[in-house]
Structures are given as C-alpha cells and as structure tokens.
Design goal:
DUF4293 domain-containing protein; five-stranded antiparallel sheet; 5 strands; DUF4293; transmembrane helix; transmembrane; about 65% helix; membrane; alpha+beta
Amino acid sequence: MLQRPQSLLLLLTAICMILFLATPVWHKVGVGEEAILNPYYLIHLKGSLAAVSKPVYYLAVMAVFSAGVSIFTIFQYKNRVRQMLYVALNSLIGAGLLGATVYHIQFEGTRFFAPETQGEFGIGFWAAFVALAANWVANRLIRRDEKTVRDADRMR
C-alpha cells in the first residue's frame, strides 16, 4: 500500500535529495575569499574572480539516481524483498554521496585558504544526511512488515 509509513519516508528521501541538488552543500568565507561546494562544482573565489573551479557533477548524478531509486522503490510495495533490496542499494548510494561530499570538503575545500577554518555546512549537506537516515528507517519498517507477514503465514 502506498500510505505505509515507509512510503512516506522514501518520499522524504527523494525530496531531501532534490533539496541537496538545489542548495549549497558547504561554504567558507574569508577576507576577500570564498569557497563554495554545491553538487555541481567546487569553486574558490578571490574577490569576484574564480581562482579554482573544479566540476563535481558526479555528486549531482548520485543524488538524482538516489531520488529516482527512492521514488521507484515506493511502488514496489507488493514485493517487500525487492523493496528491501532497492532500499539497501539506495543506502549505498547515499553513503557514497555523503562520503564523496565530506572528502571534497575536508581534503580540497578547506585547503584553499585558512586551513584552520572549517567553514559551514549548508542545507544540502544536512538534507543528504536526513535522506540517509529516513532511508534507513524505511528499511527497518519494511523489514518489520516482512517479519509480520512471515509470522502470520507460519500460524496458518
């Protein structure tokens, strides 16, 4: 059924991934300098000129793929085992996305200027984190449903 709590959590996962695509993930501001990471590029601005601009489009591709898998998984409610498989795949994609994002922040973004200053995480980073958590809870609820059905079948 589409009105199950896990369907709502999977929809929340997709919405958070779309929010990840639309908002900045991380930024750091210094005197006359700024570093920004969004799902499309990592850029270091000196004044109004881009000193370094590195494309990171694979973050956007992973977020779109994760949102697509979440939406597809919602409609797999008739086969809970397959739904668990897709949710597990989505967890791997989300963990890879967060890992790649943290890598770009820690090893590339903070080194542009003032390495002792960390910068601030944006809404996009927290949206990806919430998406991963909602996906995990959805997986737990799907497993609970599957266990309930198996226990009921055993009683017959």
